[in-house]
Structure formats: structure tokens, C-alpha cells
């Protein structure tokens, strides 16, 4: 009986969380429930809603004032040092080389869909792991980042001219997203739109926003955009810190190497092994759409059953601990 009550509560809270995000959160709405389930990562809605509740009031908005975090001064005052190391990577072709199809860095589960738009990245650190390649190739930037304890992850992010990233959001709310302009068009035609609010990048200027709001990027200029992109620790109370601890363990599994001297996380290794199967499924979609749909629904059903099994096991563990 106790287990049934707990499961009913979790199911009800989960549905309410999804409904809140779909219907009320932010100013930008999803076009349909189908888009929400494809892009909104509803599986994380319950914990994300708790984090929104447990967050300090000053970050409960899409775009956040960076000046209230004095530790970010270290990045602002050293932006030219960081820029020079990023440009050195770009000019020697490293940003392009490490992101070539088939390289370890290309199996990036979190940012895989961006590559088709010409977007490129170079990891500096990621949720507890410091990239060996970055320590060798960008030592000054790595040293600067090490002084800021609330930086969970960091990378250089490159975007070519006349390109875009369609609207999307990040799945987990443990961090806020920080951008520092390094070499940008310095034009209103190169911008990010976060929940209806536009921000145009400028060299040496920074931005902090909640990446779990819908956002999209457009570079309608002929010049590329190069920025430092960081995950900045979401300020939360003690209850939020417990959730964040679990989320950060999950994010640690998503570490992606730049080169062979870096370690990859569990998600990176799994994605690398299943990519050939995904490619075969795409080919099947073109040749036999009915078979592709049967395969798709079977795999999704098995994933849901696996997730349900994990949730039930977790609930039983909690029930055993409190009994």
C-alpha cells in the first residue's frame, strides 16, 4: 500500500511538472505536445521543477545579470588572454580536426545535432574532469577557470557565418549557461534568443542565462562567432544541492574527449558503439519506412520499460529505508 501511494504521488507530480513546463513556464510556447516530447526532455521535468523552486530568486528568469557574480570578473578581465588561446586553436585547424566524423570528439551525445550546422567545440573541463589536451594547448585559460569554483564545465564554441542553431533547450537544470564573446561579428545580426529575449554577442562582453528555456541562435553575418561557453553552478538551497549532486553525477558520465589523451565518459563510449546502429536505422527509414517505425516503437518501449524498472527499484529502496 505504501509503495502504491509513493508511486501515485511521483506519477502525479511528474505529469503536473510536464504540464507546467509545457503550458506556463516562460513566454515562448511549444508548437505542440509532439515538439515538447521531442525537444523538451520531459523525463527530467520533475527534478527540474524542484530545482526551479529551490533556486534563489535572482536566477528565476531567462537572462540573468552577470555582474552580481564577482567571481566572473576573472573571466571578463582576462578575456583577451582566453581569446588568444582560442584563436590559436582555430588557426591551426584544431577545432575542425577534433570534430571530424568518426573521431572520439564527434560522439558527443549532448551537442551531436549542432555539428550539421558547422558548429564546433573544444572542451576545457567538464563536471569534475579536466581535459589533458586543454591543459597542454590552453594552459592559461585552464588556469583562469581553475580559480572559479562554480564553473562546472567549459569549452570554446565556434559558429560559422550565415548559420543557425534551431530552437532547443538543455535537459538538466543543475547549471546556468555562461557566454563570453571572444571574436564575434559585434553585430545585432549575430544573436541568441532566450525565451523571446535577444542578446547580440560582443567581444569581451558576457551573458548568463537559464538554458532550460527554449532558445535559438542565428548568425546572419559573413563573420564567424567564437565564444567561451561555461556551465555555471545554479545557486540553490540545501534541497537543491541534493538534486544537483545527482545531476552532476549524470553529467560526469557525458564527458567527451578532445583527443586520444583525454578520457571519455560512459555516455560517450555507449554512443560511439551504438552510432553504427543508428546509421543503419536511418538507412532503413529511407528503404522501408514501416519496418523503421516498428523498430523505433519497439526500442522506445524497451527504453520506457527500463526507465520504469529503475524508478520502481528506486521507490522500493526509499520505501525500505523509511520503513
TrEMBL record:
InterPro entries reported for this sequence: Asp/Arg/Pro-Hydrxlase, Asp/Asn_beta-hydroxylase, IPNS-like_sf
Domain Aspartyl/asparaginy/proline hydroxylase: 77-235
Pfam families given in the database record: Asp_Arg_Hydrox
Spans traversing the lipid bilayer: 5-24, 299-322
Domain of life: Bacteria
Molecular function (Gene Ontology), one example: dioxygenase activity
Family statement: Belongs to the aspartyl/asparaginyl beta-hydroxylase family.
SUPFAM superfamilies: Clavaminate synthase-like (SSF51197)
Entry protein name: Beta-hydroxylase
Keywords annotated in UniProt: Dioxygenase, Membrane, Oxidoreductase, Transmembrane, Transmembrane helix
